[in-house]
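Posting for a labmate who doesn't have an account.
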Amino acid sequence: MEVAQKKLKIPMRFEQVDGSLLGGTPVESITLPIKLEMGQHWEEIRFIVIPNMREEIILGLSWFDKWKPHIWWEDGFRKVRLAMGPLPDKGMNNIITEK
């Protein structure tokens, strides 16, 4: 994924449960704010850029704690219900389906 990035003043380390570094090296960059859209949910967000990863995006625990999405793992589909963005909302009436 090609997005504008900003170099961190101090590299960050993300250790996995086995003690190895996530991505193999310390993180040196974050993205500039970008718009994340899923259905009618949207928000401005920055991502930490971790080198050597297969996944393009990983949403962390702080994101899940903030938005509290409802996720169903049925029939090979991921169904996610999120509040309409950009602010957390109690009116969670939008279901997004991905293959």
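Reply:
Got it, the structure tokens are right above this. The radius of gyration is 15 Å.
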